[in-house]
From TrEMBL:
Residues 74-286 form the LUD domain. Residues 401-478 form the Lactate utilization protein B C-terminal domain. This is Iron-sulfur cluster-binding protein. The lineage of its organism: Bacteria, Bacillati, Actinomycetota, Actinomycetes, Kitasatosporales. The keyword Cytoplasm does not apply. Pfam families: Fer4_8, LUD_dom, LutB_C. Residues 316-385 form the 4Fe-4S ferredoxin-type domain. SUPFAM superfamilies: 4Fe-4S ferredoxins (SSF54862), NagB/RpiA/CoA transferase-like (SSF100950). InterPro entries: 4Fe4S_Fe-S-bd, FTHF_cligase-like_sf, Helical_ferredxn, LUD_dom, LutB/LldF, LutB_C, NagB/RpiA_transferase-like. Keywords: 4Fe-4S, Electron transport, Iron, Iron-sulfur, Metal-binding, Repeat, Transport. PANTHER family: LACTATE UTILIZATION PROTEIN B.
């Protein structure tokens, strides 16, 4: 299995510049996101009260977060009463240790996994591998990523950056090393690729004694965990193993089944463009003779409590992982998910990652700037997360933290110079005249060419028109 992680990923601008040069990646992304956008728009248009549903989803999430402590205690009581065991993890490292110990206690050395953002967030596969435990992904897209020694690049479709020909090559090259090999003569027909995946996974489903999952929702009133999916592989992981371990972020909780009903309408339309999920699996503790005989629920904080304390930033915890914001984002469509250096890419990743992990690295300090602030993400979010507002809020935090570090920055010096110029009309007029003259001298064919020195990165990434020969200030003075 792959031991690759996101550790040490470069800042977003650097990674994005590399991604922009990959024409195949851009073609794959453009085709996939356009298809998902059109499907989503069609099924959303069928719902007369879609905006009311969005508002209901937002209200339920915000009410739950305000009383999260109460609902978490209630959830623990209900899960325990139903025969399950609840474990609390302050961070990813603690969650990894808990899961590793639980698997070791069964005596098994391999597990099957259902697609889970939380387990990717804590890099559980790598933690298990260090303990000699093989974790096999069973979601088709996650299987492609794992066999390709790759990183997920999308919340809903982790292998969105791969086309059919690339997937075929991965299956032919890698499947035999981990189990049933790809059939002879495998083509890149989607049906044949899916059949190859089923054959490869079948032996693992029938052999595995331990399953690991996440959950889309946790219902506090009954202690029920809920997973929605499109393939059925998840249901195999949830029902066949003797032991089931679910790692879930504490923000995934909803108070009641009535509240859950709202999200079961919002999620499939926003994510896969479907009216309902093909598979909706629910389980409450354990039931004799039906499903796993042992159930463990690992509740993960991992920076969520700190995020909850931020009045503006806490909106990110409303996210139901639908990925609608990724599919409409002009930045994501051009650079893909890997440029974000996180399991959470796109607009939601730009606000969720820096809050869960902090802004100690150049990568996390750069993510709030990975946006044009066009607002398309806010318009499609099924729970009305105002992502642009949070992005601006986090940018302010990054600037404030920079001041506290007392680190000299060219940007801070430039802003100080701009403040000096803009605070005096005479200085501004002089700067405009100088800038216009310099711009025209550097212009080529009506566009500003490459600027000298430290200004070159600005001109290298922009196609700016030459300055007008006469500024508005000069025109106004001449005509009035």
């Amino acid at each position: 299995m792959s031991d690759s992680t996101y550790l040490g990923m470069p800042p977003f601008p650097e990674a994005a510049r590399t991604a922009l040069g990959d024409t195949q990646l851009r073609s794959n992304l453009a085709h996939a996101t356009d298809t998902i956008r059109r499907k989503r728009a069609a099924v959303v248009a069928e719902v007369d009260d879609w905006e009311e549903l969005r508002e209901a989803g937002r209200a339920v999430k915000e009410r739950t977060l305000r009383h999260l402590d109460t609902y978490l205690v209630r959830l623990e009581e209900r899960v325990t009463a139903a025969g399950g065991q609840v474990h609390w993890a302050r961070d990813g490292a603690e969650a990894g240790r808990i899961v590793t110990e639980l698997v070791r206690a069964t005596g098994e050395s391999e597990v099957v996994k259902i697609k889970s953002m939380a387990t990717q967030e804590i890099e559980l596969n790598e933690t298990l591998a260090e303990a000699g435990i093989a974790a096999y992904e069973t979601d088709l897209a996650e299987l492609i990523v794992q066999l390709g020694d790759d990183h997920p690049s999308h919340i809903l479709v982790p292998a969105i950056h791969r086309n059919r020909a690339e997937i075929r090559e991965i299956f032919v090259r890698e499947m035999g090393a981990y189990g049933t090999p790809a059939p002879d003569g495998l083509t890149d027909d989607p049906a044949r690729l899916a059949e190859a995946a089923r054959l490869h996974l079948r032996e693992k489903f029938l052999r595995a004694k331990v399953g690991i999952s996440g959950a889309n929702f946790l219902v506090a009133d009954t202690g029920t965990a809920v997973v929605v999916e499109s393939e059925g592989n998840g249901r195999m992981c949830l029902t066949l193993p003797e032991t089931l371990i679910s790692v879930v972020g504490i923000e995934k909780i909803v108070p009641s089944w009535q509240d859950l009903e709202v999200f079961l309408q919002l999620l499939p339309r926003s994510s896969t463009g479907e009216r309902m999920n093909p598979y909706t699996s629910t389980w409450t503790g354990t039931t004799e003779g039906d499903g796993p005989s042992t159930f463990h629920l690992v509740l993960l904080d991992g920076g969520r409590s700190d995020t909850l304390a931020d009045r503006i930033g806490r909106q990110a915890l409303n996210c139901i992982r639908c990925s609608a914001c990724l599919n409409v984002c002009p930045v994501y469509e051009r650079v893909g998910g890997h440029a974000y250096g996180s399991v959470y890419p796109g607009p939601i990743g730009a606000i969720l990652g820096p809050q869960l992990r902090g802004t100690d690295t150049l990568l996390d300090r750069s993510l709030p700037y990975a946006s044009t602030l066009c607002g398309a993400c806010y318009e499609v979010c099924p729970v009305k997360i105002n992502i642009p507002e949070v992005l601006v809020h986090l940018r302010a935090q990054v600037v404030d933290e920079g001041r506290e570090r007392r680190v000299p920055k060219a940007e801070r010096m430039a802003m100080a110079a701009a403040r000096w110029v803009l605070s005096d009309p005479a200085r501004l007029a002089a700067a405009q005249r100088t800038g216009a003259l310099g711009g025209r001298l550097l212009s080529r064919r009506g566009r500003i060419g490459r600027l000298p020195g430290p200004l070159s990165p600005w001109s290298d990434t922009r196609d700016a028109p030459s300055p007008a020969r006469e500024s508005f200030r000069a025109w106004w003075k001449r005509t009035h």
